[in-house]
What we know:
This protein has two domains: 1-41; 83-174, no CATH class. It contains eight helices and two strands, in the order ααββαααααα. The chain has helices spanning 9-16, 18-36, 83-98, 103-112, 117-126, 131-145, 150-159, 164-174, and strands spanning 49-53, 58-62. A two-stranded antiparallel ribbon has the order 1-2. β1 (49-53) and β2 form a beta hairpin. α7 packs across α8. The longest helix has 19 residues, at 18-36.
Amino acid sequence: MKWIESRDPVKRWIGRHKIVSGAVLAVIALIIIGAASSPSNNTSSSSSSSSYYDPGNAVEVPDDGTSDDSASSYVAPEPSESSGQENARAQAENYLSYSSFSRSGLIEQLEFEGYSTADATYAVDAVDVDWNEQAALKAKSYLDQQSFSRSGLQEQLEFEGFTPSQASYGVSAAY
């Protein structure tokens, strides 16, 4: 064991601690290899745009050449609807699938269900509804249940929240 008995203190320490020094060298090698292959170091300058991952959406951000690669260029997409708005819209569509409502009547119904006035109003405005057709359906529903004069049906539809022109359309369609 001439190597261990060397006068150089580094060689003596390595000779006595072969396992520890081998492990240290292996860890250093793994760190260097890991750093060299990490995704943050693999950049391509030939691309004209960069993709940044967002859990909800992949967003393309054009590279106009003025951005600093060290600065973040992530652009968060604007949410199209809050969860309250989305749920209120879905509930409004559900109601309209089996019943007829005036605009104000549907907003009131959603508020009764616990939605805020803002979310209920957003939902009603976000659904594709022909309010004249809703007035006609409501008028026919009333006439199926009981008798109304034209003016009485007009008043009833206006009481339900239909505008005078929508109520008039509904009465004409039902008679």
